[in-house]
Amino acid sequence: xxxxxMTLDEYALYxxxxxxxxxxxxGVWWAEVKPCFYRPLLPWTVxxxxxxxxxxxxxxxxxxxxxxxxxxxxxxxxxxxxxxxQNYSLESLCHKRRNQxxxxxxxFTSKQITDSREFKEQAFQIYVDFYHRTHYxxxxxxxxxxxxxxxxxxxxxxxKILILGAYHQDKLSAVNTSYQVEDTIIGSSFFADTTSxxxxxxxxxxxxxxxxxxSSDAASIFYGWATGEKGLDDFKLIRGCELEKLPARYQIxxxxxxxxxxxxxxxxxxxxxxx
Length: 275
Description:
The protein has helices spanning about 10-15, 95-105, 115-135, 145-155, 195, 200-215, 230-235, 255-265, 265-270; strands spanning about 20-25, 30-35, 35-40, 60-65, 75-80, 110, 160-170, 170-180, 185-190, 220-225, 240-250.
């Protein structure tokens, strides 16, 4: 099992197939993460202010991107990465984490899922269980089987996506999807049934991905944005992720800026990276 490297253009096309609005200006791919609000498709992309044109609709909403260290910023982009991939081993973990991984290894085996029919038949109910447990807000439409199947078709149409299943007593219990874009592995989706949580599924899958990455040419694994919520962020920190605070600059429509500061302060602080 291994990733096939995607170009940034290929990644943009895959995101478009999943309904993400992307646009390319002056060689930079942007994603419309909220209506008329843009960030680079790879959020760690550094853009020097004034060096490129922004997507035209940013004037209506806004834009945010990482900037060179020497340029003053007005916000931060806080991202989690796993680095030093090629030197990973189970023995390199602390005693507690090593025991958690071994617990998962005692209960689960992993296999690449290559049959979309198997995925559709076995993974759907796991996703429903995951959603109702976590109240996950993204892509709620996948709770409907037709939408879930359409997502599966998009996944399996792209051979560069690594789709892994974790099996407990020969039954699919969890799914992890990931891909490598340029030199970064991106963890895309992970969902598991409730029973698997107490059996160490999270540590099992992180270990599995890191073992595969150790023999890859990738420089890092992107594990998502910091949330500012201690429990969620600590979960990643204690498993070896590093928090990178990238200086950034944002521009927001003045009316939206004022409203955000006044009415949705928590979201405004997350935008600024003030945690």
